[in-house]
Structure formats: structure tokens, C-alpha cells
Design brief:
The complex is a heterodimer of chains A (194) and B (575). With 194 residues, chain A is mostly helical. Chain A is built from 9 helices and no strands. Chain A starts with 9 loop residues before the first helix and ends in a 10-residue tail after the last helix. The C terminus of chain A is likely disordered. Chain B has 575 residues and is an alpha/beta fold. Helix content of chain B is 48%, strand content 22%. Chain B contains 14 helices and 22 strands. In chain B, the strands form 2 sheets. In chain B, strands 1, 3, 5, 7, 9, 11, 13, 15, 17, 19, 20 and 22 form a 12-stranded parallel beta sheet that branches. In chain B, strands 2-4-6-8-10-12-14-16-18-21 form a 10-stranded parallel beta sheet, with no helix packed on it. In chain B, helix 9 packs antiparallel against helix 13, helix 11 packs antiparallel against helix 12 and helix 11 crosses helix 14. The N terminus and C terminus of chain B are likely disordered. Classes of the chains: A mainly alpha (194), B alpha/beta (575).
């Protein structure tokens, strides 16, 4: 896993670890936009995302010494970011979302493949992002980790504190929530059983 | 179940006789999470089943749509974040500058504390370079007056400028930490070598009894650690006495700084006397000032002090001469000699005897009216004010001072929040960890002074101990600011922006200060706030320096609710 469109900043990381402020600047300039977008997708408000981005980089400065240089820096960075965002959400006690409460007893509606196909075809990125904001915290985090930062199921399980076998369940439920939200926004009629 | 039924409870998917794929199988197939055999099954099925192929294709497109929606750069990096990087960089450079200054001081202190004494012994003579350690510890403002502060400031400024210079060269020329360390080391080494040798030297003597005989001359500063000390000769420098009984009957060209049970000056001291003793008696001449924290201070008829006399003492008897002013906090003061300047006294009783001669005004704030002999020669009558022991809360000045203190706190907080915005924000956040903050606060509040005291037991530890004590003391004030910031957030809402946080800090600090002025409970409030805030600061400090942490894993694992019974996961729907 690496940051979208990014190469590994091995030299800058090494210099930053040695205390070079310029290297920090390089890393920040390179990764801050991506991390901000990550936080923007994962957290409810823009202000939260800005705060979280700053906090992640402050945290990063302290934790860089723990970074294992044999692994991907961007993967590690996203792991830190994901943990931070999830920790924020968890602390705010808004993880009592649909996965664990109200939706627990609601059966997943099986989509009509053709309707689902049409819905996906007609949905725009903007609509998806808006719909994403309506999801529960865990569903949103799971989708962001998987489809933004390309984290593995193991990493997602680790970050969310669930067993690996449940990651697929979390992702599938998240997709269902997303489809429902897309339907509510009027982008398309919700897919589902008739 | 009919073949054509939707296995997940949906509509029929087609007319195939084989079971349809469930959605989870499709997802895991798309995400390459299935084992090889199962993946082949899915692949084979979708080639034959239109409905499942359509579902699989739709979910693949859904994945792509999600990825595209996520990755699209729909928002530019906010200005605040762009500026944050610059601020962080500037902040780090400032910290580097300070750090270098402190590091250079530390290196020099180590050098003077450990290496130089060995060199001294080897050379069997004093060393010829300026000892910054001595300058800091024995010649600071506490001992020698404000002139030394200027010197100290010069040294600190020099080191800081050096640090900034390094930061500049580091930014422009150097890219590697090792090269930086090399330059820093070079800077320190160069500093140690090029400091011009001073005329002063050090002579440290430890024995049960030490005597500098008449006719003997000691060049440079003299440190005496002994039971009895007697100086009848000449010391061309300062004298530091750590002794039970000390007598200075010779000539000291510098200052006398004494920690002694009894100190007697019968000779001539060209500089000042700083005395922390049970009793001090001046029979000889002190050219400059005397500062005494003693139980008893006697200036005999032959005793002469060229400058001022400042005492914090139980009993003061002045039969000799003081060239300038007297400032005394005294239980019983008796003036029988000559004072060319003014007298400011506060305490129990003041008696001015017949032969006394005072050239300036006399002000006495005491419990009893002064007793003044009719034949005393005074420039003006004694201005007496009764010392009233009324509660401080009843004095108007108390509240004025509280306002001044509150303003000082706000200013202090403003500086700290600007210098250390991230650390301050972290500390404010930690205040809400009530248990940890209070617990750690109690530990630090009582533990650090004790540790500092223990550290002072060694020569180099004295520097560390005093530094730790001052840091601890400053933290007590910082703690009130941190708690104030939290109170401000409670009232005005939470923020992480620098200036809004400062605004909340100002409001909160004023409220906290108000609470501390409440009679009877204000002191306890202040104590509690100090514990609380100190703990929060310590917690932030601890988190900064802890060696290894995992990347902030969330707490308790969450087990998701299983899928409903009509949903199958990861397998083929039974026929």
C-alpha cells in the first residue's frame, strides 16, 4: 500500500528522523494533502479533518523514531492516520452507529443486480462523497481505509479492533448503507428487493 | 428454496439451476480475499450465470466508483494547514536554537564540573579559565547583585546567538544530523579553547580546620569546606565558606559568601558579604554591602560597612558605622552607631540609643512604637506605622496585586502558547484526564523538589538540581494557565485554533485567579489547580518522550453484529 500517486520518500524520512526540519517540511508538503483528504472522508466535518491532519503530523513527528524503514512509509502514515481518526470517533462515542444498534436486526436487502448496476453507473463522485457523509462512523472508516488508502483487511481489522473475518461483513454493510444513502439523496432509486 | 429465488431474499436472479452467489462472495472475490479453489468456483459460476455476473460487475464498478470518489482532489489543502507547516518549521527552528544554547551550557558545565577539577589537581594549581558553573551558581544575582546578571545574560545571549547561528548554517549548508552534531561539538570545543584565561583561580580546601596564616596570600577564589576556618592572610579573590565557625581577620579583595554557624569579620573585606549563618559579627571593615540571613547580626563599635546593610534577622545590634542605608526585617533592632543613609525597618521592636546618628529618614513599621533616646542625632523623627495583622483579604492592595498577577499570568500564558502551541494544546487536552493528571500532579509536585534537593548533593548535580527546581517552579504557574485554558473551553466551546485557544485561556485564567482570591478556600483552589495542571503538563511531557508506542490503536475490540439470518456469508447458497 502506498499513498495514491506517491513514491516512497526514503531520503526525506531518514533526514526527518535525524531532526532535519527541512525534511519535515518536504514530508508535510508531500503528504498533508492526501492525509487531509483521508481525514475529510473519514471525519464528519471539515474542521475536524483540519484538526486531525495537524494532530496526525504532530503525532508523526513524535513517532517517526518508531517507523520501520523496511516498510512502506505511506502505509505506515495511513495506519497512524486511520488509528487517529478512529480514536477520535471512538472517543466521541459516535461509533454507536447503525452497524451495532438500529440496523442490527434489519436484514440486508439483497440488491437487484441490474438496478444496482444502473445506480452505480448513474452516480457521480460528488454524490458518493455526500452519501459517505451520511454513513455511520465505522462504515465510513472502513470504506475510507479500503478504497482511499488501500489498506489490507488485516490492517483494517487492526485499526477497527475487529477480527479479520468480520472486515468483509463491515465493508458489505458499509456498501449497503452507502447505497441507501445514495438512494435517499435521489441520485437513484435504491436497489433492493422488491 | 427454489433455484430461481434470490438467496439473500431478493428477487429471482435468473433461470439457472445452480445456486447463485451471495453478495459477500462477490465482494470477497473482487477484493481477492477468497482462496484459490473458491475463487475458481466463483469465476466459473459467473461465466454461466447472467444474474451473478451482473451482480459481480456492478460491485466491481461500485468499488471503482468508491475509489474514484475517494481519491478525487475535490478540495485544496486549506490555508490553515499550509500555514501550519511553516509555523511548525519556524517553531522547530526556535526550539533548536534554545536547545543548542542549553546543550552548549550543559557541555560547558560538565567540562568545568568534571574535567577542570582533575586538571587542577594535576597541575597543583588553580586553572586559568572562566568557570561558567561557578558564574552561574555562585556569582548569580542571588549572591553578587545585578551586575552579575548582566554577565549571566551576556553568556546566555552568546550561547543563544551561537545556537541560532548554527540553526542558520544548518538550514543553509547542512543536511545531515551527524554533520550538525560535528559543528555543534566544534562550536563547544572552540568556545572552551578560545575563552581568554582569567586572572582568577580557584583554591579548594577541605579539612577539619583551615587557616590562611598572616602573610600568606591566596591568588584567586578560595573555597573552604571545614569545621573551623580562619583567614588571617590575604585572599585575592572571593571566599566561599562552608563551615561551622569562620573568622576573617585578614584581607579579602573580593566577596565573602558564608554558610556558617558563626561568622566573624575582624579584618578587611573589599567586596560584599553574603551571610547565611546563625550569627555574624562585623568588627572590621566591609567596603561594600552586607546581606545577612541570620538570627543575630552585630556590627561592633569598630565595625564599618561602606555600603548598605540588609538583614533578615531576629536581632540586629548596630554599634558601628553603615555608609549607606539599612533595610531590615527584624525582631529586635538596636541602633547605637552611625548610619549615613536611611533606615527602613519592619518587625517587632526598634530601639535607637543615645550615641546613634542617622543621616536619613527612618521608617519603622512595627508592632510596638520605637524607643528613641532623646540624645540620638536623627535627621528627622521616626515615621512609625503600627503593624496590623489583619487578614490580607481586607487590604485593598491585595486585590490590586491580584489584578496585576492575573495580567502577568495572561502575559505568561500568551508567550507560552505562542512558543509551544502544540504542547500547550496537548497539555490542555490532558487536563481532562482527571485521574491521571491529579495522580501525576501529586507525584511531580512533591517528587521534583525532593529529587532536585538530592541532585544538589553533588557538585554537578547542584546545577541540575537548581535548574530542575526552577523548571518545577515555572510549571506551577504554567499549570494554572493550562487549567484556565480548559475552563475557558468549557465556557466558550472547544477549539484547536491557536488564537481562539489563547482567548479561552485568557478568560479561563481570569476566572481561575478569581477563584483563588476567595477567602479561606482560595488557597486550596490554587493548590488543587497546581496539582491538576502540573499533572497534565507532565503527562504531555511524558507522552512526548516515551520511547515506543504502537500507532495509536483503538481501545477495546469491537465485535460487529452478525449478518441477519437470511444473509449468507462467504459461501455458496445451499440449494
Amino acid at each position: 500500500m502506498s499513498a495514491p500517486g506517491k513514491t516512497e520518500p526514503t531520503e526525506a524520512v531518514a533526514r526527518a528522523r535525524a531532526g532535519d526540519a527541512d525534511a519535515w517540511g518536504e514530508l508535510y508538503r508531500e503528504f498533508a494533502p492526501a492525509i487531509f483528504r483521508f481525514c475529510r472522508r473519514a471525519l464528519p466535518t471539515r474542521e475536524d479533518a483540519e484538526d486531525a491532519t495537524m494532530e496526525i503530523f504532530m503525532k508523526l513527528r513524535d513517532k517517526l523514531i518508531q517507523y520501520d524503514e523496511t516498510r512502506s512509509f505511506s502505509a505506515w502514515l495511513y495506519k497512524v492516520a486511520a488509528n487517529h481518526c478512529w480514536d477520535l470517533l471512538r472517543r466521541r462515542k459516535i461509533r454507536q452507529d447503525k452497524e451495532t444498534d438500529d440496523v442490527a436486526d434489519v436484514p440486508l436487502e439483497h440488491p437487484d443486480p441490474n438496478q444496482l448496476d444502473r445506480m452505480i453507473e448513474q452516480s457521480t463522485s460528488d454524490e458518493v462523497r455526500r452519501a459517505l457523509g451520511k454513513l455511520g462512523a465505522r462504515a465510513r472508516m472502513a470504506l475510507v481505509m479500503r478504497y482511499y488508502s488501500d489498506m489490507s483487511y488485516d490492517e483494517i481489522a487492526d485499526a477497527l479492533g475487529v477480527r479479520r473475518a468480520f472486515v468483509g461483513v463491515v465493508l458489505l454493510r458499509a456498501r449497503h448503507e452507502l447505497r441507501q444513502a445514495l438512494g435517499e439523496t435521489g441520485a437513484l432509486a435504491a436497489g433492493g428487493a422488491s | 428454496m427454489n433455484d430461481n429465488d434470490n438467496p439473500l431474499g431478493g428477487p429471482p436472479l435468473g433461470d439457472q439451476a445452480t445456486p447463485h452467489l451471495d453478495e459477500m462472495a462477490c465482494l470477497l472475490y473482487i477484493e481477492r480475499q477468497l482462496d484459490r479453489a473458491r475463487a475458481q468456483e466463483v469465476s466459473a459460476h459467473t461465466q454461466e450465470c447472467n444474474a451473478c455476473r451482473t451482480l459481480l460487475r456492478a460491485m466491481e464498478r461500485e468499488s471503482r466508483l468508491l475509489t474514484r470518489a475517494m481519491l478525487e482532489e475535490d478540495e485544496a489543502l486549506p490555508l490553515r494547514l499550509a500555514q501550519f507547516q511553516e509555523r511548525a518549521r519556524r517553531s522547530m527552528q526556535w526550539i533548536w536554537g534554545v536547545l543548542f544554547g542549553l546543550a552548549a551550557t550543559g557541555v560547558y558545565a560538565l567540562y568545568t564540573g568534571y574535567i577542570e577539577p582533575w586538571q587542577d589537581q594535576l597541575a597543583k594549581a588553580g586553572f586559568g579559565s572562566t568557570s561558567l558553573l561557578n558564574l552561574l551558581i555562585f556569582q548569580g544575582v542571588f549572591w553578587k547583585g545585578w551586575q552579575s546578571v548582566i554577565t549571566l545574560l551576556e553568556v546566555v545571549a552568546m550561547l543563544t546567538v551561537g545556537g541560532f547561528g548554527l540553526a542558520f548554517f544548518r538550514r543553509r549548508l547542512l543536511r545531515r544530523g551527524s554533520a550538525l552534531a560535528l559543528v555543534l561539538t566544534g562550536f563547544c570545543a572552540l568556545g572552551a579553547l578560545v575563552v581568554p584565561p582569567s586572572a582568577s583561580a580557584q583554591d579548594v580546601r577541605k579539612a577539619d580546620a583551615v587557616e590562611i596564616r598572616s602573610g600568606e596570600t591566596v591568588k584567586g577564589d578560595l573555597f573552604l569546606f571545614c569545621h573551623r576556618a580562619r583567614i588571617d592572610g590575604t585572599v585575592d579573590g572571593d571566599v566561599f565558606l562552608f563551615t561551622q565557625d569562620a573568622s576573617v581577620g585578614g584581607h579579602v579583595t573580593g566577596d565573602v559568601i558564608a554558610f556558617a554557624q558563626s561568622l566573624r569579620i575582624t579584618g578587611v573585606v573589599d567586596g560584599n558579604i553574603r551571610s547565611f549563618a546563625n550569627n555574624v559579627t562585623v568588627t572590621g571593615t566591609v567596603t561594600r554591602n552586607v546581606l545577612a540571613f541570620n538570627e543575630l547580626v552585630n556590627v561592633d563599635p569598630t565595625g564599618k560597612i561602606g555600603g548598605s546593610l540588609t538583614t533578615f534577622t531576629q536581632s540586629l545590634n548596630l554599634d558601628g558605622q553603615v555608609g549607606r542605608n539599612i533595610l531590615t526585617f527584624v525582631g529586635q533592632g538596636t541602633i547605637s552607631g552611625t548610619v549615613d543613609g536611611r533606615i527602613d525597618a519592619k518587625g517587632g521592636n526598634l530601639r535607637i540609643n543615645g550615641p546613634a546618628k542617622v543621616g536619613g529618614p527612618i521608617r519603622f513599621n512595627g508592632e510596638n512604637p520605637p524607643e528613641v533616646a532623646s540624645d540620638a542625632k536623627l535627621a528627622s523623627p521616626v515615621q512609625y506605622t503600627k503593624w496590623e495583622h489583619k487578614p490580607k483579604y481586607e487590604e485593598g492592595g491585595y486585590y490590586i496585586w491580584q489584578v496585576i498577577w492575573a495580567a502577568a499570568f495572561v502575559l505568561f500564558g500568551l508567550v507560552l502558547f505562542q512558543l509551544m502551541p502544540a504542547f500547550s494544546a496537548e497539555s490542555v487536552g490532558n487536563v481532562e484526564h482527571y485521574g491521571a493528571s491529579f495522580g501525576l500532579g501529586v507525584l511531580v509536585f512533591f517528587g521534583v523538589p525532593i529529587a532536585a534537593l538530592i541532585a544538589c548533593a553533588t557538585v554537578v548535580g547542584l546545577f541540575v538540581g537548581i535548574s530542575a527546581f526552577f523548571v518545577w517552579y515555572a510549571t506551577l504557574y504554567y499549570a494554572q494557565i493550562i487549567v484556565g485554558a480548559l475552563v475557558g473551553q468549557w465556557l466558550l466551546g472547544r477549539t484547536r485554533e491557536a488564537w481562539p485557544l489563547i482567548g479561552r485561556m485568557v478568560v479561563g485564567v481570569i476566572l481561575v485567579r478569581l477563584c483563588t482570591t476567595v477567602p479561606h478556600i482560595g488557597g486550596w483552589v490554587k493548590f488543587g489547580v497546581m496539582l491538576w495542571g502540573t499533572g497534565a503538563i507532565s503527562l504531555a511531557l511524558y507522552r512526548r518522550f516515551q520511547p515506543a508506542i504502537s500507532a495509536g490503536l483503538p481501545g477495546a475490540p469491537i465485535v460487529p453484529t452478525p449478518l441477519p439470518s437470511n444473509t449468507t456469508v462467504g459461501g455458496v447458497v445451499p440449494a
